[in-house]
Amino acid sequence: MSNYKIETKCVQGGYTPGNGEPRQIPIIQSTTFKYNSSSDMGKLFDLEASGYFYSRLQNPTCDTVAAKICELEGGTAAMLTSSGQAASFYAVFNIASCGDHVVSSSTIYGGTYNLFAVTMKRMGIEFTFVSPDCTEEELNAAFRPNTKAVFGETIANPALKVLDIEKFANAAHAHGVPLIIDNTFATPVNCRPFEFGADIVTHSTTKYMDGHGAAVGGCIVDSGKFDWNAHADKFPGLTTPDDSYHGVTYTERFGLEGAFITKATAQLMRDFGSIQSPQNAFILNLGLESLHVRMQRHCENALKVAKYLESNDKIAWVTYPSLESSPDYELAQKYLPNGSCGVVSFGVKGGRAAAEAFMGNLKMAAIETHVADARTCCLHPASATHRQMNDEELTAAGVSPDLVRLSVGLESADDLIADIEQALAAL
Ligand SMILES: *Cc1c(COP(=O)(O)O)cnc(C)c1O
């Protein structure tokens, strides 16, 4: 499968049925699996044989879909999680624990920011947030002896900032730690961060991968390239025996290609149980089968809408990385040459009140706390997610009071533009 193009991997990856087997991936709706002898099962618990025993840790349907995403990203191992939040948490917590430190881009999804700055901080892990536009010197200055990872988003939600993945990968590697990239908005169709030096990729599969607003889910993929043994002192959890798993040393037993995901499954999935349901994995796979077709259309539509907005004098500003006027245009051309994503943000002249009135005038674009869906939706953060903040606080948080976040769907771009046009005209 590895020689096929991304379009073929979207359709065919992860699953090749044998003679007379189901054409579509089977939903293994079973919590547990039967064995003939206790010693057969004992080998599974010792990680000496591979196989399934309990769906809180691993399920065949989930693994089939994870294998497809692994192929799409060009990785060596992958796992599904119950949500994107669980994927971000596991990816970091698998290598950082109490007393450790992580460097993160400051423009990341609000839920991830809260996870890092509040919840994981309570667990004793400290985060330093750096501007994605920082110089190499500023980035290097953020590292400490106890730094265990660097984190960023290919295209930040909702700032739509494109990360210079190579700059962040070089700094991470110079300090002996991996770069973890949340590739949710770009998807592997538009960017494969491993090709630019990232070591681990995470996804909220809830967004474009599902793409129909049907199933919450997440995924972690390992490139297999980070040499944990070369920095063994930093990553004892991977390079020394795990007493909670019969003394297995993950890098020794599973190699660089399998150590990270096996540890995350054997320890974190065992203890936290944020597994994706096999039903959701099946729904996710339906989305993946058309991901390449949908991403192309999302991007085409979003670019048309962004260009229209730029030309309308009732619009104060437009942010979309694939617009030539974008400060991130160069980065977008390097990392996202085939298109960025379907999300466009813009300001309506007249501030908070005008933005709110504009949203109320829309007939097709629905008001939702969601993005990356087949149906166009939009959100005015100042009157929804960031409602408690005044204009000064909003500006400090990087969310201007007039900001409208539009997630452009798969409808006709003409109809979408007509809807926006009438909503602006009625202001
Ligand atoms: C939505 C989102 C998440 C969180 O994913 P859930 O599936 O909602 O838990 C993480 N990162 C990004 C970039 C997102 O857009």
Structure description:
By secondary structure, the chain is an alpha/beta fold. 40% of the residues lie in helices and 13% in strands. The protein contains 16 helices and twelve strands. The mean pLDDT is 95. The site of pyridoxal-5'-phosphate has 17 residues, from helix 4 and helix 5.
Unreliable stretches covering 5 or more consecutive residues: none
Spatial shape: globular
Q: Which molecules are bound besides the chains?
A: pyridoxal-5'-phosphate
- CATH architecture descriptor of the largest domain: 3-Layer(aba) Sandwich
The N- and C-terminal alpha carbons lie at a distance of: 53 Å
- H/E topology pattern: HHHEHEHEHEHEHEEHHHHEHEHEEHEH
Please identify which CATH superfamily of the largest domain we are dealing with.
Type I PLP-dependent aspartate aminotransferase-like (Major domain)
Number of strands: 12
Count of DSSP-assigned helices: 16
- CATH hierarchy class name of the largest domain: Alpha Beta
Major sheet: arrangement of strands:
1-7-6-5-4-2-3
Whole-number total of structural domains: 2
Average of pLDDT: 95
The helix content is 25-40%
Compute the CA-based radius of gyration: 22 Å
How much of the residues is beta strand, in percent?
5-15%
CATH topology group of the largest domain: Aspartate Aminotransferase, domain 2
Largest sheet: 7 strands, mixed
**SS content category:** alpha/beta
